Structure formats: structure tokens, C-alpha cells
Amino acid sequence: MLIDTHCHLEWNSYDADRDAVVRRAEQNDVRRLLTIGTNLPDARKTLAIVQTYPNVYGAFGIHPHDSQTADAAVYAELKAMAGRPKIVAYGEIGLDFFKNYSPREAQLAAFAAQVRLARELDLPIIIHDREAHEATLAILRAEGGSYRGVFHCFAGDEKMAEEVLALGFHLSFTGSITYENKSKAHRIIREMPFERLMLETDSPFLTPVPHRRERNEPAYVRLVADQVAAIRQEPVDEVIRQTTLNAYQLFKFENQGRRPEIAYEYKGALYLNLTSRCTNRCSFCAKFPAFTLDGHYLALERREEPTVAEVLDAIREPAKYPEIVFCGFGEPTLRWNDLIQIAKALKSRGARRIRLNTNGHADLINKRAVAPEMKGAIDAVSVSLNAPDAAAYRELCRPAFGERTFSAVVEFIRRAKQFVPEVVASVVEVPGLNVAAARRLAEESLGVPLRVR
Ligand code: SF4
Q1: Pocket, ligand 1, Cβ cutoff 6 A
Q2: Strands (E), 200-262
Q3: Angle at CA 240, nearest 5°, toward 401 and 395?
Q4: pLDDT tens-digit profile of 192-202?
């Protein structure tokens, strides 16, 4: 499933065949489209479009080209419309010192005013910056704090990318990365954190090769994904999965307005959701694409991760459940100290059995052997062994700690057995996995049962 995080379906050139354009996107597995209205009349059109097409979501703001049309009445109407369903971001806003269709003073004033408005609305900001890098950064710095948002069609250099990422923004790239002489953009794509990268078409503009002379459309975002895959030397499926996840985390789409659940009931047990971060990128991870499990919405941004007190508050009667499980859609041992504190508090409040579901990276994450700390707090550990050897593990799980990870997982299982009454290893049955070899490792070498999921 792909997402085109920036297109302009409002554009008149789609008036004759907008239905077909959206349909072609769906046929090409582009399941979410974010269409951007760039002035007040287009913003009204955005509202109509997102109501017409289930998979299309919207954003709007006054584009730098239209800055001179912005006044208090315009902002008031945009503000009112931003609360409507399926409006998931504010923008694109920013500066365009290349075309200068609006005077620079008007652009600067409109940009600063709209950064404040987007923050007031608590929406991610979509930034347009063309030949105005320093002035754009100056306004963002002056407004202060960190941001949720994206620099669309990022065109700065490595130093600017570093600062923009440090401010909290994502970077997104268009079909222009398929053109010649784009080595700077390619270097940034290659080096930047994968979890901050997004794909867009900017349709109807910037059509990727080999359609360059045609009108662009969201279906072509797949060509942008192909190019990113070639640049980063990653399988294209992995580029699609990661960029889709990134877009979901930023814009939320159908999950907009939903609060992630901290404690949720599942199959009779109570599950605790401490983080959505993980030190693996497993090809089979269940959090893709929409961060929901059995109707429970679990995507936690870092700033939303619950405190120990919030977790304990969310569990009214721990003794009521046959089992309480640290699980969620991330790796709970990234919050090791909190996890142990919560487990001990739950035990003192009568929790019957506490299980930890983990990828087994806890020692690497916490830079010490943590198994002894589980004694008396954790009753069962289920470790995702996932593979029979380091090579298969690296291929399936793409661990952040690299080569040494698999042996650390094996060692974690060995140590956990000394301090936890019940330790289980697990694998997910995926094509090509040698389950028999994983079973031999778990049962014969490590002395723990293997659960095949
Ligand atoms: S370890 Fe678990 S949460 Fe992390 S990527 Fe793999 S399956 Fe997903």
C-alpha cells in the first residue's frame, strides 16, 4: 500500500477525469491520497473532494504564490474549515523566492501567521520552500520549539536537511528525483533516517520519468518509490512499507482524533502499550499499515508515550485478568526501567501473571544484562527469535544493532531462563524460513519451547 502525501486534485486539469485519476491510483495500490488546496477557493474544493472519495484526505493553507490574498477573514474561514472531517494537515505554506508571484514581505508575513495558526490547530505543517532556504529556516527558528510536519519536495542541501530534521520535520520527495543532476537529493535520501522519509507526486507537476512530458497523477508515486529504493539500495516493498508507516504516523488519516490506547483487552488478557518504537523493522510486522489491532488503535508518537503513572491509572483492577502482557506495536524494553517499575507495582496490586513480549534486544538497548531485574516481576517472557541464524534474522528483521543482534537475542533467552519461570521463543512462519532449524536452536540448544505464529 502506497501513499501519495502531496497532490493537487483541486487543479482544473483534473476536472474532466478526477474520478478516473483517483481510480487509477487505487488500481496501483495508492490507497491514501493527500490533496492540497493552496488558496481559499481551492480549500473549499478540497473539502468537496475529500467528501467524494473515501481514500482522499485533505490539507490547505495559503501558498506563498497567493500570500497577498491572505487577510484575517481568509484565515478565519480556513481555521473553521480545518476542523472538518478528513483534514489532516495545514499547508502548503512557506516561501517561494523563485517565482515571487506575491511580494516577499507578504510571503514572510503569511508564512509566520500560518505557522502560528497550524500550531493553534494542532495540525502537522506542510512546508513549501523554493529558493528561500535561509528565510524559511529563520521564520521557523523565530517561531521556536519543535515541529510536526514535512518539507515537501525538499530541495535544500545536507546541512539544511540536518537542521530541518532536528526541528522535527519529515522530508518528502517527488518524481523530480528521477531527473538528471539530482545527486544532492540522492545523497540526502541515502543518508537520512528512513523513518522521516515520505513520498509524493506533487501532481499535476513534476511528473517522474518515463512520463515526464505528461500530466502527473498520484498513481505515479510508485515510480518515486522505485527511485528511492534504487538510491537507498533497499527492496522497494520495504520503501513502500516504511514510507507508508511514516505518513500514517504524521497524518494519521482515518485514525485522526483517535487517542492511542495504553491498556487494551485482547483475547481475555490485558495488553499494555508503552511505545510504538522498535529496534527491528520486521518484514511481517503487524503494525503495518494502520496501527490497529482488533479495532484497538495503538500508534504512539514519542511525545504520547504514557508515563508510569498513566499506565498504572489505566489499569483499574489488575487482579481481574489471568494475564497482563507488555506488548503493543513497539519494543517495550526500550522503556525498560518504566516497564520493571510498572510490573512490580502491578504485582503489589495483585496481578496474577505478567508476560513480556519482546524482540530480545533489551541488553543491547540498555547496555547491560537486564535479565536479573525481571526476577519476581515478570512471570513469562516470549522472545521473537524469528530465525535460525544471524543471516536469516538480518534479512527478516533488519535490526538497528546490525550483525551482533541475533547472538544478543540468543543470549537474552539464555539469561532470561535463569530469572523468569517461563520462557518461550517464537517465529512467524514466513515463506522460506527454516522453521525446523529454528526449532532445533530453541528446543535443543536453548532449552525453550518454540511457538510458531
Ligand atoms: S520486533 Fe515486533 S514490533 Fe518490532 S518490527 Fe518486529 S514485529 Fe514489529
Answers
A1: 278, 280-282, 285, 287, 329-331, 359, 384, 397
A2: none
A3: 35
A4: 999 999 999 99
CA of 397 relative to ligand 1 center, distance in Å: 8
The half-sphere exposure of 354 on its side-chain side, counting CA atoms within 13 A, is: 23
Going by C-beta distance under 8 Å and a sequence separation of 6 or more, which residues neighbour residue 328?
271, 272, 273, 274, 275, 276, 298, 300
Q: Whose CA is nearest to atom 7 of ligand 1?
A: 285
Nearest to 161 by CA among 135, 139, 181, 184: 184
Pairwise CA distance, residues 425 & 422, whole Å: 10
In the block, residue with C-alpha cell 497550524: 118
In contact, 165 and 191? CB cutoff 8 Å: no
3-state secondary structure of 218: helix
Q: Give the 3-state secondary structure of residue 166.
A: helix
Q: At what angle do helices 236-251 and 221-232 cross, to 10 degrees?
A: 120
* ipTM of the complex as predicted: 0.99
- Domains present along the chain, CATH in parentheses: 2-254 (3.20.20.140), 258-452 (3.20.20.70)
The fraction of the chain above a pLDDT of 70, given in percent, is: 99
**Residue 290 pLDDT:** 67
